[in-house]
Amino acid sequence: QQPVQSPQAVILREGEDAVINCSSSKALYSVHWYRQKHGEAPVFLMILLKGGEQKGHDKISASFNEKKQQSSLYLTASQLSYSGTYFCGTESKGYSSASKIIFGSGTRLSIRP
Amino acid sequence: NAGVTQTPKFQVLKTGQSMTLQCAQDMNHNSMYWYRQDPGMGLRLIYYSASEGTTDKGEVPNGYNVSRLNKREFSLRLESAAPSQTSVYFCASSPADTQYFGPGTRLTVL
After folding, report:
1. From the candidates A44, A46, A86, which should be mutated to test the interface with B, based on the most B CB atoms within 10 A?
2. How many CB pairs under 8 A join A and B?
3. Phi-psi domain of B2 (left: phi exceeds 0; alpha: psi -120 through 50; beta: other)
4. Rounded to a whole number, what is the distance in Å from the CA of B83 to chain A's nearest CA?
5. Cis status of the peptide bond prior to A113, with omega within 30 of 0
6. A80 touches chain B (CB under 8 A)
7. What is the pLDDT tens value at each position of chain A, 113 positions in all?
């Protein structure tokens, strides 16, 4: 099943903070976060593995609550370059050695000067 | 390194025509994937390949076939294109967990 992302869209002024949530109905092995700018391919941001970890990447960080099957992406002091659509992808490890990721429908983030 | 390359970049087909989308990666990754992305939507997994010689169905495999020709190349074939297959198709490769995406093929079926 596809993970559910919220909100669907966010409009911020430069310097404001945002939180994007991702939840799944299935037990998760990992959560992946990607950003896609208009007309471009998705770009990897970070991966969080089973174990309830939290990660950071510049002013973008994320948490993963394994028990609640939820992840949140935190963008602090947003910059114009943060604009784009953010996708979470969830993985429930199966028999295959490939990382089979199911993506949510995305959260569109717009940053205004 | 070119990373992940896809050809063609754009394609217009008539209903019922067939075509093959090509994908190649030069990063020596074992796993490769095909996704489709409809306007305003997320990525949906069509097929994937954990290694050379193996392929598995994803979320939306109907109407598609794939071939993992060798470690570098993973092609997607539409045998009889339908308007519902109008989409942007992304190929990706992965060494383990992180996926690296190609630039995409924009396909329109009339």
Report:
1. A44
2. 65
3. alpha
4. 21
5. no
6. no
7. 789 999 999 999 999 999 999 999 888 888 999 999 999 999 999 989 876 666 666 789 999 988 888 999 999 999 999 999 999 999 876 555 667 889 999 999 999 98
